[in-house]
Write a structure and sequence with these properties.
Length: 441
């Protein structure tokens, strides 16, 4: 459960990484396909423009990114199955009970017992699932050319993440089991509240304390990029005075950016791949999108929606834990819901619930992403830059899925959905007054 939440926070915030360090790359130029060019006096065909953009991706590249993304559907299932088996064995072989017994021998303070148990648990699960992690996050990513790291630096990042998980995970579990022991039957309501508060806390500290563990942040000096971004920020009420660049290219070629923090910690960050691989219109539309997340308060809305999903999760887990313990508790050596040795059962049930809720959580994020797209189009007014960026995101996300497929598996809109929105925006704003137009007011 902790891993899942951390992953969520990482996905939201880390946005992820970026490009091959190719210093000699020529400055990219924005190439608008013929069918997407506006011709005065002629109607603009949105569908033809979308198809022309999608056709820019060669068939072999399309097949590759489709295979990568569709493989991800199965990984959702295998990740769950693997975790479920590990959790079940921890109970069945009474390993969980033994880890608790060890913690109780070391200290008589309950909070410290929870801490000692949590550290053992997180380390053990990391070790047992490590071969799968190596396949999924190292070999498979390399197989699709989506990872720039050799094994050493990759392992280093994994170990740093493990350390973060140990610290945040144990802290959360100490608080949670403290609540369970004090509140008895109503523990699940306050457990859900604690989880949302903790998630907010993690979201808050991640950009400032966790991102820099993986990537180096430097101030962007180039005024050709920095000035238009800060100008757009001012126009959208974002009080930022600097733009930061982070070296995502050490992990991959993926393009990303974010607007994070608040008040004193507010910062606009973009990754070096965006700088290296993209034209100014593409950078502007991306920053417009990220500013949309910020201005539309997506962090808080996301927390509210996730909060509802989490409350239902705790209600379900509470019910299922009691049912399972009544039947198998004794043979697993688990004394009750307030015994920390119950953790593998709780993790198993939470993963099962979130596995089933995948379409719901994806729809929550996908809806906000689409809103941010609209905001970005209005703020940056670069529909062709938007279409180009959508194609670049198509390197690791299927560009043209079916509607049900998109509903279930997509946490961002697909390339076709986003380019269609961009081209529709373009068609409906072709006659807008242009800058420098004498009639513009
Ligand atoms: Zn977004």
């Amino acid at each position: 459960m902790i891993n899942k939440w951390l992953c969520l926070a990482f996905l939201v915030w880390l946005g992820f990484a970026a490009a091959l360090a190719n210093a000699q790359a020529p400055t990219p130029t924005l190439v608008v396909p013929d069918a997407a060019k506006a011709r005065p006096g002629q109607p603009f065909d949105v569908k033809a423009a979308v198809d022309a953009y999608l056709a820019k991706v060669p068939a072999d590249k399309r097949a590759r990114s489709d295979a990568y993304f569709e493989g991800g559907y199965w990984l959702l299932l295998w990740d769950f199955v693997l975790l479920a088996i590990v959790m079940w064995l921890l109970l069945r072989w009474r390993i969980s009970a033994r880890m608790r017994d060890f913690a109780e021998r070391v200290t008589r303070f309950r909070a410290l017992q929870t801490l000692i148990y949590s550290v053992q648990f997180i380390l053990l699960v990391f070790v047992v699932t490590f071969p799968w992690t190596v396949y999924e996050s190292y070999f498979r990513e390399h197989q699709y050319n989506l990872l720039n790291q050799t094994f050493g630096p990759w392992l280093h990042d994994q170990l740093v993440m493990l350390a973060v998980n140990v610290v945040l995970g144990s802290l959360f579990l100490m608080l949670l089991f403290g609540l369970v022991r004090r509140l008895g039957k109503s523990w699940w309501v306050w457990g859900a509240v604690l989880s949302v508060v903790f998630l907010a806390f993690v979201s808050l500290i991640t950009p400032v304390f966790i991102f820099p563990l993986f990537n180096k942040f430097t101030k962007l000096e180039d005024p050709r990029i920095k000035d238009p971004i800060l100008s757009m920020a001012r126009a959208n009420g974002i009080p930022a005075s600097d733009v930061y660049v982070y070296d995502a290219s050490r992990q991959s070629d993926r393009v990303s950016a974010n607007v994070s923090g608040f008040a004193g910690t507010l910062r606009i960050s973009l990754n070096d791949n965006l700088l290296k691989r993209c034209t100014l219109p593409e950078i502007e539309t991306t920053m417009g999108h990220e500013m949309g997340h910020y201005v539309l308060n997506h962090i808080y809305k996301g927390l509210a929606f996730t909060g509802i999903v989490i409350v239902i999760a705790f209600a379900f887990v509470n019910w299922a834990i009691n049912a399972a313990l009544a039947r198998w508790g004794e043979s697993w050596g688990v004394r009750g819901v307030n015994d920390v040795a119950v953790l593998p059962l709780a993790v198993l049930l939470f993963s099962f619930y979130f596995f089933l809720m995948t379409p719901v959580t994806n729809t929550i994020t996908r809806t906000m992403e689409y809103e941010a797209d609209m905001y970005g189009l209005n703020a940056a007014r670069q529909p062709d830059g938007e279409a180009e960026i959508d194609l670049k995101l198509g390197e690791y996300r299927k560009l043209d899925p079916g509607p049900i497929e998109e509903f279930i598996f997509f946490d961002h809109p697909s390339g076709r959905t986003r380019i269609t929105a961009a081209m529709r925006w373009k068609a409906e704003h072709l006659s807008d007054p242009q800058p420098g137009d004498a009639t513009a007011k």
